[in-house]
Amino acid sequence: MSFTAEVKDELSRVKRSSHHADMAELAALIRICGTLSFRGPGCYSIRVSTETGAVARMVLGLTHDVFSLKTKLTFRQSILHKTRNYLIEIPDQEGLAQALVSMGVLTKQHSLASGINQELLVNASCCDAFIRGAFLAGGFIANPHGDFHLEIAVMGEQFANQLVELVNKRGIPARLHHRRGAYAVYLKSYEDIVALLTLLGAHKMSRALVKVRHMKSLKNDVNRRVNAEIANQARSTNAAAAQLTCIAHIKKTVGLEALPASLKTFCALRCEFPELSLRDLGQQVTPPLSKSALYHRWLRLQEFAQSLQGS
């Protein structure tokens, strides 16, 4: 099961709060993944096609509980793509036209509505239910082991803008992207995605997201430390090679006996321990020498070698 499917499955099991909130959630489901058909004046039917069992379960349950409408469910499985498809039909029947008006699918004049029926959003729980229904119908959340991304695909500019405003009013900054005739209400911030999942009732999956983020943070920290250590080792190796080259040049030209005692000690240490950093090199003598002390001896050794080249 994909991460999106797991989130939708948990959202479909959120405890219902009120009849009005149920209507708001069903309205979002129908508006986003439903298809309305006209069969003459006052005659309508709805078809909802989905590959998600959670969505099919919500549409069936809410349609029966909120409006007591009859439904027909057809289950199909694609042999080629190995995917399931649920087709829910709400045929023309008494009460359907009024239900469509109540959900904001139709206006009171029975024309197609373009925005969200604000009468559905009477309180915070109704707003959350509408957003939950919208995500169930058109939502996608990327596997958190990759990038953090959540979006809800919808049709209609006015509906999309009002959905963005609704999410923003619930304290979560959403954005809108227009692509190929459709709209995507999206979040890319990890904190915002966790906040939205928690708000909608997907507490288990929000905790899973937090856990993945924590593991990614630990891995990134380990990688940073390893990369820093590799870089330090490379710098130490290059510095040691330069020091050995300098020592060899002095030994070949005037001999190490020409050096002061402190520089002879440095040369002896470096030749004996060519792989150590300056910090570790200083621990090989008693009393130990600091990294700073050895670095200054190296600078003096460089100056001595340069004076030989100039003479």
From TrEMBL:
<keyword id="KW-0131">Cell cycle</keyword>
<feature type="domain" description="WhiA LAGLIDADG-like">
    <location>
        <begin position="128"/>
        <end position="218"/>
    </location>
</feature>
<dbReference type="Pfam" id="PF02650">
    <property type="entry name" value="HTH_WhiA"/>
</dbReference>
<dbReference type="InterPro" id="IPR003802">
    <property type="entry name" value="Sporulation_regulator_WhiA"/>
</dbReference>
<dbReference type="InterPro" id="IPR018478">
    <property type="entry name" value="Sporu_reg_WhiA_N_dom"/>
</dbReference>
<keyword id="KW-0238">DNA-binding</keyword>
<dbReference type="GO" id="GO:0051301">
    <property type="term" value="P:cell division"/>
</dbReference>
<comment type="similarity">
    <text>Belongs to the WhiA family.</text>
</comment>
<dbReference type="InterPro" id="IPR039518">
    <property type="entry name" value="WhiA_LAGLIDADG_dom"/>
</dbReference>
<dbReference type="InterPro" id="IPR027434">
    <property type="entry name" value="Homing_endonucl"/>
</dbReference>
<protein>
    <recommendedName>
        <fullName>Probable cell division protein WhiA</fullName>
    </recommendedName>
</protein>
<dbReference type="GO" id="GO:0003677">
    <property type="term" value="F:DNA binding"/>
</dbReference>
<feature type="domain" description="Sporulation regulator WhiA C-terminal">
    <location>
        <begin position="222"/>
        <end position="305"/>
    </location>
</feature>
<feature type="domain" description="Sporulation transcription regulator WhiA N-terminal">
    <location>
        <begin position="20"/>
        <end position="97"/>
    </location>
</feature>
<comment type="function">
    <text>Involved in cell division and chromosome segregation.</text>
</comment>
<dbReference type="Pfam" id="PF14527">
    <property type="entry name" value="LAGLIDADG_WhiA"/>
</dbReference>
<dbReference type="InterPro" id="IPR023054">
    <property type="entry name" value="Sporulation_regulator_WhiA_C"/>
</dbReference>
<dbReference type="GO" id="GO:0043937">
    <property type="term" value="P:regulation of sporulation"/>
</dbReference>
<dbReference type="Pfam" id="PF10298">
    <property type="entry name" value="WhiA_N"/>
</dbReference>
<keyword id="KW-0132">Cell division</keyword>
